[in-house]
Amino acid sequence: MRVGAAWWAWRGRVGQGDYGGAGRAGPLRPWLGADCLAVPGRGGQGVLSRQTEAGPVARPRGSTGPSRPPLDRPGGHRQPPARPRLRATLQGMRRLFPVTDETVARTPGEAPGGEGVGGVPEGSGGDGAGGVGRAHLVDREWSLAELAAAYAYPELGPEGAAGAGSGGPGAWLRANMVSTLDGAAQHDGRSKPISSAADMRIFGTLRALADVVIAGAETVRQEGYRPARARAEFAQMREAAGQGPVPAIAVVSASLNLDFTLPLFTSPLVPTLILTGAAAAPDRIAAAEKAGARVVVAGDGVGVEPARAVRALAELGHTRLLTEGGPRLLGQLVAAGVLDELCLTVAPMLTAGDAQRIAGGPAVAVPQRFALASLLEEEGFLFSRYQRS
User: Fold this and answer.
1) Please, what is the average pLDDT of the chain?
2) 300 exposed, middle or buried (CB, 10 Å; 0-12, 13-18, 19+)?
3) What is the mean predicted confidence (pLDDT) over 93-99?
4) Cα separation of 31 and 36, whole Å?
5) Among 18, 16, 11, 8, CA closest to 132
6) In whole angstroms, what is the distance from residue 196 CA to residue 151 CA?
7) Which residues contact 93 (CB under 8 A, 6 or more apart)?
8) What are phi and psi for residue 215, nearest 5 degrees?
9) With bands split at pLDDT 50, 70 and 90, how would you rate the model's confidence at 91?
10) Is 369 helix (H, G, I), strand (E, B) or coil?
11) CA dist., res. 72 & res. 82, Å (int)
12) Beta bridge partners of 172
């Protein structure tokens, strides 16, 4: 892996010396685990502390002493010290990228303009007074309003991102998926075992921002989809945006092999949509409509054509689109080039096994490049946003 000069320059600004060194004030803790605490030191220096049952084991910031155990095994191998039993310390959510005032908090009275390169306040990288103590990480649980602002849809013109490529009205299609460190999008057939409380807060926020939630028929069956429920916390926001009380659920199905007696079809606040092809069985279409669903044809054959589905939804007034997969559907959207944004939660878990990735199906001819828009972290879970570059 190659690391650009900009990264090394940023790393030099953020941390000097081994394990962060003197004046480390940036938003990331690349060398510290959840069991490491910042303990105030003398003269604003502070120390790095590893919390154990016997108390903190501290090493002063900027120390020039050895940071690794000596080479005392025959043959020059390192002799690992006995590992203490560690107590994990939980943190709130924090923004890692982009670097903003939310990332690096200022002390009272510090002017907003007093930032150096990379969003780190000037003077925070030096020793002594005005040093380490001037900036610190913002670790707290974000409110739903803050999450909504962080994940707001971009403003679109009449030929917005997806619409420009498909020849229809402007729309923005984002996907929300979760994956383990080893690439599993589910465990035992469901995504809940690899999720977290913060992931579910973001999941609910993304739904509250959307006009419609698109899901594949298999995902609807496996995850037991129910109608979206109205939430008082988002009612005013949705009304101001000209949206109904809840997003519609749109199920992508070629066969319409669905249980139309489920609440998703019989008792939603807004009618559930079914995206299908023109060759779908007429009796299944009739059964869906009898249950109260609205059938939208988005393909000339049996299946759904992704670009036509985006256009059809936009023509119904749904321009803020959200898909929750599953992997087969997301793979089709990627292959068709209609995906504008991926919100990916990376769970700090390993599952092994043969679970699906977040996107399946045939590979694209040329990998599509997306740009990192933002990155949040809470309790080891990373919440990333990538947008079409």
Assistant:
1) 74
2) exposed
3) 79
4) 10
5) 16
6) 18
7) 139, 140, 141, 142, 198, 376, 377, 378
8) -140, 145
9) low
10) coil
11) 14
12) 320
- 3-state SS class at 39: strand
Residues in the chain: 389
What predicted TM-score, i.e. pTM, was given to this entire model? 0.68
Candidates 358, 361, 348, 322; CA nearest to 162 is: 322
Tokens of 208: 């509250």
CB 191 within 8 A of CB 297: no
Backbone angles phi, psi at 195, to 5 degrees: -100, -175
Res 139: pLDDT:
66
Taking residues 354-371, what's their average pLDDT?
90
User: How many angstroms separate the Cα of 285 from the Cα of each of 44, 237, 249, 257, 267?
Assistant: 70, 35, 17, 10, 18
pLDDT of 43 reads: 38
Q: Tens of pLDDT along 209-239?
A: 999 999 999 999 988 899 999 999 999 999 9
CB 107 within 8 A of CB 134: yes
- 322: Cα within 13 Å, side-chain hemisphere: 25
List the one residue out of 28, 23, 9 whose CA is nearest residue 124: 23
Which of the pair, 324 or 8, is modelled with greater confidence? 324
Contact 78, 68 (CB under 8 A): yes
Cα(253)–Cα(260) distance, rounded to whole angstroms? 13
Return d(Cα 298, Cα 108) in angstroms, integer. 56
Q: How far apart are CA 308 and CA 299, in angstroms?
A: 7
Q: What is the pLDDT of residues 59-82, one digit of tens each?
A: 334 444 444 444 444 444 444 444
**Dist CA 345 CA 313 (whole Å):** 26
What percent of the residues of the chain are helix, what percent strand, and what percent coil, each to the nearest 5?
Answer: 25, 25, 50
In the predicted structure, residue 132 carries a pLDDT above the cut 60: no
Residue (of 157, 238, 209) closest to 321 by Cα position = 209
Q: What is the pLDDT of residue 92?
A: 77
Give CB contacts under 8 A, 24+ apart, made by 204-207. Answer: 204/144, 204/231, 205/144, 205/147, 205/148, 205/151, 205/234, 206/151, 206/174, 206/176, 206/322, 206/343, 207/247, 207/322
Q: What is the 3-state secondary structure (H, E, C) of 300-336?
A: CCCCCCHHHHHHHHHHCCCCEEEECCCHHHHHHHHHH
